Amino acid sequence: MRRLAGGLEQAAFWLFAALIVWAPIPLGSNRPWAWALLEVGIYLVGVLWLAAVAGRAADVPPAMRAAWPALLLFALWLGWLAVQWIPLPTAWVAALSPRAAELHALAGGPASATLSIDPHATKVFWLKSLAWALAFALTLALVRTRRRLVWLCSVIVAAGLIQAIYGALMHLSGTNLVVLDTPIAHASQASGFFVNRNHLAGMLEMTLAVGVGLMIAQLDDPGPRSWKQFLRDAARVVLSRKGPLRILLIVMVVALVMTRSRMGNTAFFVGLLVAGVIALALSRHATRSTVVFIASLIVIDVFIIGAWFGVDRTIQRIEQTTAGDVRERVDPAIYAVKILDDYPLFGTGGGTFYNAYPRYRGADILPYYDHVHNDYMQMATETGFPGILLLGAIVLLSFFAAVLALSRRRDPLARGVAFGVVMGVTALAIHSTVDFNLQIPANAFLFCVLLALGWLALFLERRGQTPVDKSVSEVQQAGDLSTGV
After folding, report:
1. Whole-angstrom distance, CA of residue 129 vs CA of residue 116
2. Within 260-350, where are the H helices?
C-alpha cells in the first residue's frame, strides 16, 4: 500500500511538470476547453497528492507550513470570489452593491441575486483561481528535495525553450498560420503558440528568470586568475552542464527579442537589473562570477547575438512609440476607473470586465475589449479594492520571501532560485501595467508556480531527509523522497 502511495506521489509531481510544458501549447490555454483541461489536470494532481498523504507516502513539508500566510490569503481570495457568485437576498445585494442590484432588477427582480453582474463568468473565474491557488500549494507540497527543485526549474526552462524555438523558427520562416480558427501572424514577430506576442514575451520573462537563477546557482568564485586559467575555466564551462544551459538562455533571449514586444523586452532587462542590485546589496555570499554573468547577459545576448536577430528593430519600436500608441493602452484603463466608482467594494465580479466595460468606455474607444491592457486595473474592477489588495499581498509576501532567501541563505541553489523569483516577478509586474498576461491561463499558472518558488528558496532544507515516514523512504530509497542531490 505504501509503495503504491509513493508511486502516486511521484506520478503527481511528473504530471504537474507535464502540465507546465503543456499549458502554453493550446493558444496559452486561453480557450474554454483548454483551460478546462488544465484545471482538471491540476485538480487531478491534487487528488494524487492527497492519496499519497492518506497512504503515508507524503505529508505537509516545512516549506508549505512556513508559507501559511500566503495560503491563508489565497483561501480568503477564493472566499471573496465565492461571495460574488453565490445567490444572496436582493436586499443584501442592494446594500452591498447598489449598481449590481439595479442591473439584476432589470432582469425582473428575482427573489435572490448575486454581487456579480454575470455570475456564470464569475464562477468560471473562481474555478480558474482555485486551480492557480492549488498550483501554488502543490508546488510547495511536491517539491520536497533539492533534486525535485532542480527538476521543476529545468522543466520550466524547457517549457520556455519549446516556445522560443517554435516561435523563432516560425518567425524566420515567415509563415502565418490559422490554429484552431485563430490566425497567428508569425511573419511579423515571434508569437510561439500564443495568439499575442506579448504573452509569449511574458512567459519568456518568467522562464528566462528561472534559467538565469539556475545558472547563477552553478557559479563559483575562483579568485584572481591569469589569462591561461581564465581560458581553461571557460573551456570547462562550455564542456560542463553550464555550457548547454547558457546556450539555451541565449536562444530564449533571441526569441524574446524576436517578439518585438516593447514592454516585454524592457521588463526583462529591468527585472534582471533589479534582481542583480538586490542580490549584490543583500547577499553576503554573492560571487564575482555572478556580476560577470549578469553583465554577459546584457552585453553578449543583446548587443552581439541579439543584433543578428533584429534587436535594433525592437529598439526602433520603442523609440518610435507615439502618444497615440500610449493612449491606445492607457485610455481604456482610464475609462475603466469609472467602473470602480460604481463597484468599489466587490467589483463587477471576476471575469466580467468584457460585460461591464461597454457601458463605461468613451466614444473614442472603438474596439471590443474583453481585457483591458492593465492587469491591475482589470483585477480591481472585477474584484474591488479588497480583492486587489489580497492578490497584491500574496505577490508581495512571496517576493519578500525570495528577497530574504537572497539575504540569509548560503545554499547556492536557494540563492539562484530566489534570484530568478525576484527577477521574474519584477519583470511581470512591470509588464502587467500595459498588458494582461495574468488573464492568460498558461501565464497565470506559471506565475503562481514562480511565487511558490520564492518560499521554497527560503525554506527548503539543504540536506537531510524531508519529514516523511522512514519506512516509505526505505521503500523508495532510489526515488525523490530521499535526500536530494
Report:
1. 16
2. 262-282, 288-296, 307-308, 311-319, 323-342
Reading the block at residue 236, the C-alpha cell is 570547462
User: Tens digit of pLDDT for each residue in 261-287?
Assistant: 888 888 998 998 899 889 888 866 555
Cα separation, 94 vs 443, in Å, equals: 36
Phi-psi label, residue 464: left if phi above 0, alpha if psi -120 to 50, beta otherwise: left
- Which residues, 6+ apart, have CB-to-CB distance to 225 below 8 Å? 233
Segment 326-332 long-range contacts (CB within 8 Å, at least 24 positions apart)? 329/373, 329/374, 329/434, 331/362, 331/364, 331/365, 332/357, 332/361, 332/365, 332/369, 332/372, 332/373
CA atoms of 167 and 198, how far apart (whole Å): 12
- Return the H-helix or E-strand segment holding 26: none
Q: Name residue 455's amino acid.
A: W
Task: For residues 175 and 191, give the distance between their C-alpha atoms in angstroms, rounded to a whole number.
Answer: 11
Report helix, strand or coil for 113: strand
Q: What's the half-sphere exposure (Cβ side, CA atoms, 13 Å) at 34?
A: 17
Q: What's the DSSP call for residue 177?
A: E
Residue 89 gets which letter from DSSP?
Answer: E
Q: Which residue has the higher pLDDT, 312 or 474?
A: 312
- Report which secondary-structure segment, H or E, holds 184: strand 182-184
Give Rg (Cα) of the chain: 23
Nearest to 263 by CA among 422, 429, 30: 429
User: Locate cell 528568470: which residue?
Assistant: 209
* 112: β partners: 89
Residue 148 · residue 482 · CB < 8 Å: no
Q: How many CB atoms lie within 10 A of CB 408?
A: 16
Closest of 256, 53, 248, 54 to residue 138, by C-alpha: 53
C-alpha cell at 345: 467594494
State the pTM of this model: 0.87
In angstroms, the CA 138 to CA 24 distance is: 19
Whole-angstrom distance, CA of residue 379 vs CA of residue 362: 20
Q: Are 427 and 205 in contact (CB under 8 A)?
A: yes
Q: In DSSP terms, which residues pair with 167 in a beta bridge?
A: none
377 grid coordinates: 486595473
Q: Would you call 88 helix, strand, or coil by DSSP?
A: strand
Q: What is the pLDDT of residues 128-169, one digit of tens each?
A: 999 999 999 999 999 999 999 999 999 999 999 999 999 999
